[in-house]
Design the sequence.
């Protein structure tokens, strides 16, 4: 099965869900009280970057209110045939700069931030604003975040900075304190299905239901999981959890081989999301349990540590299920980082 590819956020014509977040940005702009820096926070793949680019092109086009045909339902609309829309989509607008993680470590370094600050200090060339979108702002290393503080504290006039953060807690407190926080929640089932019908029209209702459960309401994560064979991994993980405290060594070997055969960290992170969803389902079914809550937190820490420190992923999978087996047996001491 070949699932359709997602359009880049800068090219998306439609924002599905998040009416309150879009409405807040539109209202603050229309009232002339728009803060210069925002953190768009929420899980990966739910539309944060789509909203950021939607607001950027709306601002750069000089819009100040809601267009009549979308009033009350879809704020920040700009027609796809508008020249500003096309230039933002192609990456050719002179007053918009995007910074993203780069390099082997997948981080944003200080030189990229300093270059962006120089851009913000220039006089706008095409519009009344200069806009900076930092996609993956929580991947800025400490030096980069400290460099950003200066412009966050003393921004030039008519500058808008949008920090897209999957884990805003990784941003320095001083950075967070100088921005307005806009939390965005995962999509509900109807909105999730609407997005998935566009990017994966061949998926049937059952597949969409399983992907919704595994992805936590994130269409981006759902597409990634589907491309990585996520439904098969989910079934194998569920079977291992169901058998605890016993461990089917052969089945565990198969899961470990599947989720570590690809060297890209995204593949292993997808396994982490599948396991997290399965553990959350278990907790919902059995009710709050301190030992399992501790085990779930331990699994999350171990997965993060494995990726951050480039630890042996296969061994990490075995450590996780060994810890979960101890928890299921009543011994506590679940997976620990």
Sequence:
């Amino acid at each position: 099965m070949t699932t359709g590819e997602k359009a880049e956020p800068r090219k998306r014509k439609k924002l599905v869900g998040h009416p309150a977040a879009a409405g807040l940005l539109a209202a603050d702009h229309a009232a002339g009280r728009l803060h210069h820096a925002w953190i768009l926070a929420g899980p990966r793949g739910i539309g944060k970057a789509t909203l950021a680019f939607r607001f950027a092109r709306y601002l750069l086009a000089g819009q100040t209110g809601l267009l009549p045909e979308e009033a009350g339902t879809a704020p920040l609309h700009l027609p796809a045939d508008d020249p500003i829309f096309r230039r933002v989509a192609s990456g050719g607008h002179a007053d918009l700069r995007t910074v993203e993680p780069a390099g082997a470590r997948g981080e944003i370094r200080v030189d990229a931030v300093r270059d962006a600050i120089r851009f913000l200090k220039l006089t706008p060339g095409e519009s009344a604003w200069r806009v900076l979108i930092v996609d993956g702002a929580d991947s800025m290393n400490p030096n980069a975040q400290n460099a950003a503080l200066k412009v966050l504290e003393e921004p030039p006039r008519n500058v808008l900075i949008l920090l897209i953060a999957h884990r805003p807690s990784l941003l320095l407190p001083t950075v967070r304190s100088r921005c307005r926080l806009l939390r965005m929640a995962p999509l509900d089932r109807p909105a999730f299905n609407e997005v998935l019908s566009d990017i994966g029209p061949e998926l049937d209702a059952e597949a969409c239901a399983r992907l919704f459960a595994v992805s936590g309401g994130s269409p981006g994560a759902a597409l990634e999981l589907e491309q990585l064979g996520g439904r098969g991994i989910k079934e194998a993980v569920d079977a291992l959890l169901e058998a605890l405290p016993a461990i089917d060594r052969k089945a565990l070997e198969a899961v470990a081989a599947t989720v570590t055969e690809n060297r890209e960290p995204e593949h292993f992170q997808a396994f982490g999301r599948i396991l997290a969803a399965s553990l959350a389902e278990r907790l919902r079914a059995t009710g709050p349990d301190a030992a399992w809550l501790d085990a779930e937190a331990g699994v999350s820490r171990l997965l993060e540590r494995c990726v951050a420190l480039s630890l042996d992923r296969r061994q990490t999978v075995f450590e996780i299920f060994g810890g979960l087996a101890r928890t299921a047996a009543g011994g506590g001491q679940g997976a620990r980082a």
